[in-house]
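Per your request, structure below.
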């Protein structure tokens, strides 16, 4: 058995499989080590795919509650958590079957080593736990992903982390979610729709802090109207404690101590790299604050060791993992010439309402150029949103006034992620505002809001007033 590879990839999630396939395409002999029993990583097995199935279930619950307005009588509205979980698990398996990554890797000549955690024993060599086997890579790409982080507070072991949600025995009556990033916000929507009384705690001044400020504000209003208690500016989360009636959660906000009891507390409070036991010190690679720093070519401080995906701490998105994997694989095989870029990286969440964005927020754009163009079109003015009775939300386009090129786009509302994807395509192609304004969109569609917003940008004065 030849245990020496041109490229050795650690991890078989979205980044790992993409990197391995690309390196093989470039003619390298590639091996992939995966500590779990199957490919797909967090995204397919416990993250994006399961969450999206739960979000679909929540959407159906909302549709059922309003079916009578369309003349449909529904006599009972109840959720079977056991059936929902079974649906999630079967969907995950279907996705794994369709992707068929073990066979794809094998067909590309990639050796997949499942079920053994890898540990560095030197800069080029790793030991496969429990097998006694050692493998060597001339270049190594670390695609080890991340894992949920519990806050270092008393009683943290009582909390549930997002990937454990499917292990709950029932829908909690009272739920606290700590952390209002993408994952936390989606869990809020899901369990609120399922009937839980939800409290959302966030240390930042607003939820979805990286998003455009108007997106954050609109989603906050929607959550509040749905009965979610949204608490921002939390100074500290102090402790969790088991009581006779649930889990007591104590936190500080507004200079005061608060305490409430919940059936379940979910901590969506960080996603550090999964580097425990990897033995980075044996390879001379250093990590800091839960991530492995890399340069613009995705190299660590050891030039033949690269990182792609969540472990570098740059962007915790599958689309970023694929992009980084492509760059890392190319650099590992052909030499470090391909830079990683996240300039046009659409992101969003399947909440109620959905939200999404790409490029610069309005605040970021105005920091560069206070006279940039901004146009916002409310969903309530669009025929498709009226037809579907989903009038909440908007599309905002941000553009450079002089060149009339889009700098960013942000949306809240039905199909927001798909709308933003369409704008992303235009931005990637270098389409200017005038050209976008001439595009004929099918009627009635949500994407038609893009043309309306582009025409509003064009209607603004060529130079700022005053």
């Amino acid at each position: 058995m030849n245990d020496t590879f041109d490229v050795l990839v650690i991890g078989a999630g979205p980044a790992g499989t993409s990197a391995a396939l690309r390196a093989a395409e470039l003619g390298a002999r590639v091996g992939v080590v995966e500590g779990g029993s199957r490919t797909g990583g967090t995204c397919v097995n416990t993250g994006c795919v399961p969450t999206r199935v739960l979000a679909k279930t929540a959407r159906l619950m909302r549709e059922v509650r309003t079916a009578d307005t369309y003349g449909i009588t529904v006599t009972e509205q109840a959720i079977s958590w056991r059936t929902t979980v079974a649906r999630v698990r079967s969907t995950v398996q279907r996705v794994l079957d369709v992707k068929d990554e073990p066979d794809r890797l094998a067909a590309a000549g990639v050796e997949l080593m499942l079920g053994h955690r890898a540990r560095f024993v030197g800069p080029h060599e790793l030991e496969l736990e429990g097998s006694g086997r050692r493998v060597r890579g001339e270049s190594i790409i670390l695609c080890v992903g991340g894992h949920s982080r519990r806050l270092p507070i008393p009683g943290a072991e009582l909390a549930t982390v997002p990937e454990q949600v499917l292990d709950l025995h029932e829908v909690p009556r009272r739920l606290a979610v700590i952390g209002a990033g993408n994952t936390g916000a989606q869990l809020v929507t899901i369990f609120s729709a399922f009937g839980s009384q939800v409290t959302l705690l966030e240390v930042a001044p607003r939820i979805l802090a990286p998003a455009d400020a108007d997106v954050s504000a609109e989603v906050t209003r929607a959550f509040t109207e749905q009965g979610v208690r949204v608490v921002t500016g939390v100074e500290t989360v102090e402790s969790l404690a088991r009581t006779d009636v649930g889990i007591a959660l104590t936190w500080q906000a507004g200079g005061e101590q608060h305490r409430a009891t919940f059936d379940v507390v979910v901590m969506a409070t960080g996603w550090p790299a999964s580097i425990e036991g990897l033995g980075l010190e044996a390879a001379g690679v250093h990590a800091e604050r839960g991530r492995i720093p890399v340069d613009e070519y995705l190299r660590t401080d050891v030039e033949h060791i690269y990182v792609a995906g969540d472990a570098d701490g740059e962007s915790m998105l599958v689309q970023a993992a694929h992009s980084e994997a492509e760059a890392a694989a190319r650099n590992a095989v052909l030499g470090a010439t391909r830079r990683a870029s996240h300039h046009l990286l659409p992101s969003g969440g399947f909440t109620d309402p959905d939200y999404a964005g790409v490029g610069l927020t309005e605040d970021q754009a105005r920091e560069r150029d206070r006279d940039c163009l901004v146009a916002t079109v409310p969903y309530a003015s669009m025929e498709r949103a009226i037809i579907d009775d989903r009038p909440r939300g908007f599309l905002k386009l941000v553009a450079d006034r002089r060149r009339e090129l889009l700098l960013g786009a942000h949306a809240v509302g039905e199909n927001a992620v798909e709308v933003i994807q369409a704008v992303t395509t235009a931005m990637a192609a270098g389409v200017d505002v005038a050209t976008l304004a001439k595009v004929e969109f099918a009627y009635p569609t949500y994407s038609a809001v893009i043309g309306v917003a582009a025409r509003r940008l064009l209607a603004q004065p060529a130079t700022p007033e005053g």
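The mean pLDDT is 95.

Regards,
D.
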